[in-house]
Design goal:
globular
């Protein structure tokens, strides 16, 4: 038997009880920040986190890039701008401990392999998650190895 850790956010409403599950504490914290913004509900926050990794989202908010943020399905420019205004400055230091990033130099390999998998038709977020896991276990893997292992796991 394997053990897995799942971070949850539990919502109790008059008409429903909802559980949102996350792979990392950082994702859960970002979700909680997002739903604190007026006009952003659980489903919208989930769509944002499905479109962008926690690090990408933090970068978008820090840079104030509302145009990139509004690429999320169902998110308008005004809401994207509101998210940036309300969350900029609140995300510093968020999740430094559990954002499992590849070692220095592996970032370029990750980007190349990710671009290859996306061009083959795989979803960016799923491919990125798979590649990060592969890189964690095989830090010395070449781009070709990453693509090959990525194809197997997707």
């Amino acid at each position: 038997t394997e053990t897995a850790r799942l971070y949850v956010h539990y919502v109790v409403r008059e008409d429903a009880q909802l559980l949102y599950g996350f792979a990392t504490k950082t994702e859960r914290e970002l979700f909680r920040h997002l739903i604190s913004v007026s006009g952003v509900g659980g489903n919208t926050a989930r769509m944002i986190l499905s479109t962008y990794s926690p690090r990408e989202l933090q970068g978008i908010i820090t840079a104030g890039n509302a145009v990139l943020l509004k690429n999320v399905k169902g998110l308008g420019l005004k809401t994207a701008q509101k998210i940036i205004v309300e969350l900029s400055g609140k995300l510093t230091g968020l999740g430094d401990a559990d954002t499992a990033l590849p070692a220095a130099g592996n970032g370029e390999k990750l980007e190349e392999a990710l671009a290859a998998l996306v061009m083959l038709g795989f979803a960016k977020t799923a491919a990125e998650k798979a590649l990060r896991g592969i890189l964690r276990e095989n830090p010395g893997a070449s781009v070709e190895d990453l693509v090959r292992m990525g194809l197997k796991s997707l």
